[in-house]
Amino acid sequence: MILSDKTLIKMLNDHSLVVTDLEPEQIQPASIDIRIGNTFCIVEDSPSGIINLEDEIQYKQITAEKYTLLPGQFVLATTMEYVELPDDLTAFVEGRSSLGRMGLFIQNAGWVDPGFKGEITLELFNANRCAIELCAGRRIGQLVFAQLDEKALNPYRGKYQGQRGATGSKVFLDSKK
Fold first, then answer.
1. CB atoms inside a 10 Å sphere around CB 16
2. Among this protein's residues, is 150 annotated catalytic?
3. Which terminal Cβ of the chain has fewer Cβ within 10 Å, N or C?
């Protein structure tokens, strides 16, 4: 079941759901708006020009209030909001239609697991022929929350738990198992 604004406000007030730095106008009828933060990461060029999933990927981190996303460019960004989901709640990351109509795609996996704590890393892609200026504090998307039928047996405690800022892929850790 998708949660309403009334339920979200109740959960925020009793701290069973935590979303930091939240302004009241970010609470929508069935979602909470998320804003873009001020850290961005781009993949560093590799000598071979190939990304190997078994090796750690190197990123260049940029802290800026504005970032110009060039046509065809991909960048990681972060949300301003830090979220903490209880073990019986999940969230979907959805882009804003207004930004999608400009060619800005939020290529996020789209799923926040029950038990996750951290800032949400967004994968942004500019499909337009023009550059798009990204400004910290601007609404970039929304979180839609759904209640699980009961608490998860294995809530999220993975490699991105507690992340702050745009966080690069840690898929290389999967190959070490």
1. 13
2. no
3. C
Q: Which is the catalytic residue, given 56, 81, 123, 133?
A: 123
pTM confidence score = 0.91
Report the binding-site residues.
Answer: 96-101, 113, 121-123, 142, 156, 159, 163
The model's confidence at residue 104, banded by pLDDT at 50, 70 and 90, is very high
Quick one: CATH architecture of 5-44+57-165?
Distorted Sandwich (2.70)
Domain map of the chain by residue range? 5-44+57-165
Q: What tens digit of pLDDT does each residue of 40-80 get?
A: 999 998 788 888 888 888 899 999 999 999 999 999 999 99
Q: Which two tokens stand for residue 13?
A: 């007030």
